[in-house]
């Protein structure tokens, strides 16, 4: 066992954990209950949970089929499509927000048509927040599900097919249950990413309490005037994400 | 092949280092400051977002007047900048868009001396070119279907907007609260909102893309802009020279050209 690896490993751990302890050390514990009860906190938390869940559902509805196509269907340009799917992963989220504005904004490529035809405008709405979060989070789901599909034993699907099951029945009754842990893991990652989304949201959906001001936006704006409020909001966000990730990990994502 | 590339890169880096050393060594003649000390080296200025265009211009003029200085700006909402100063951001000068956002810095003892007011600014209604929302007065902003962007109340333009709206007795629900005035202006430029309350100077700077609608209530919410040298300044001599330049007649001329009003006598 190379001992030399322990030093950088320890430094890496400290680097990741130390900022969190800083958050705990500076937290205004004495006034915490009053600050948590402030109306803005609950509003932002509710909105964050709602939009992250909405974004995850949207990602599941579109991302699982997309992952299936990438894993199971051979077609020219598949590698290009896979590369395109991962672009939001490396794109700075604020660039994603600008791109979303240029497409779904009032004067955007699709947004103008949506507004004229259905009277639907997405910027500055809660639906806009969901869209921004889904844009940034979907690659996490697609990659996780595609990986699970590739790792799954396709003989079960072949067996189902030889027994007369159609493609749809095979997909819903054999493939999906087979990759359920992968889908769940992807959904958790996707949800966590959506919960923390900041750049695309503030760029595309703006900032208004109760409608588009999610927890990360509230933290950012609180920091400008009230450091303690920002710390409290950060603690709430930290607690929620750690609790949910820990809970779901035990149930669905079993590590070695 | 690889070796050659590495050597070339090293030679380049060496040449760059020499050039930098040359700069620092000081072959340029130093420009005298007010106190006679050398005014040179980098000056970092944290300034309200509404100062973006005018301070860039002032910075260029200052560098031309004092060879050997380089002015670097960071523009953001004044309250965000005040937080940065109080968290120890390495900066020499802070220019805010309101006394209220300067106060946390002076209260924390991070200002070297008293802030000086160098300009005043007031709000206009910025609308996309052609005014598609048909906005002519503050009261029009409450019409259904008219989307409005305001600054968040933490930042000076938001506080001024609140004062002006209260003075006019207009109860307005914006679609977004932006963290600085340029954010609100950007939503107008993109056509995502029908109007935003921004400073006259911002509307002037973006005159090719937005129209400005003046409204009488803005006279009730005029912002004083204070500037101060910071206690943590790494280059206090040049910082003082920059502040003096902003307060000088030439500085005032540049600010007036951008649409600012001179400070109250």
From TrEMBL, chain A:
Keywords carried by this UniProt record: Cell membrane, Membrane, Molybdenum, Transmembrane, Transmembrane helix, Transport
Compartments it resides in: Cell membrane
Domain ABC transmembrane type-1: 45-246
Membrane topology qualifier: Multi-pass membrane protein
Molecular function in Gene Ontology: molybdate ion transmembrane transporter activity
Transmembrane domains' residue ranges: 49-71, 83-104, 124-149, 170-194, 229-248
Gene Ontology terms: cellular component: plasma membrane
InterPro entries in alphabetical order: MetI-like, MetI-like_sf, ModB_ABC, NifC_ABC_porter
Domain of life from the UniProt record: Bacteria
CDD domains named among the record's database cross-references: TM_PBP2
Location, primary (coarse class): membrane
Functional description taken from the UniProt entry: Part of the binding-protein-dependent transport system for molybdenum; probably responsible for the translocation of the substrate across the membrane.
UniProt cross-references to PANTHER family, sorted A to Z: MOLYBDENUM TRANSPORT SYSTEM PERMEASE PROTEIN MODB
Family that this chain belongs to: Belongs to the binding-protein-dependent transport system permease family. CysTW subfamily.
Name used for this protein in its record: Molybdenum transport system permease
Biological source species: Micromonospora haikouensis
TrEMBL record, chain B:
SUPFAM superfamilies the UniProt entry points to: Periplasmic binding protein-like II
GO BP terms, alphabetized: molybdate ion transport
Keywords, alphabetical: Metal-binding, Molybdenum, Signal
Gene3D superfamilies in the record: Periplasmic binding protein-like II
Matches recorded under InterPro entries: ModA, ModA/WtpA
Pfam families listed in its UniProt record: SBP_bac_11
Binding site for molybdate: 50, 78, 181, 199
Cleaved signal peptide residues: 1-24
GO molecular function, one term: metal ion binding
Family as reported in the entry's similarity comment: Belongs to the bacterial solute-binding protein ModA family.
Record NCBIfam families: modA
UniProt protein name: Molybdate transport system substrate-binding protein
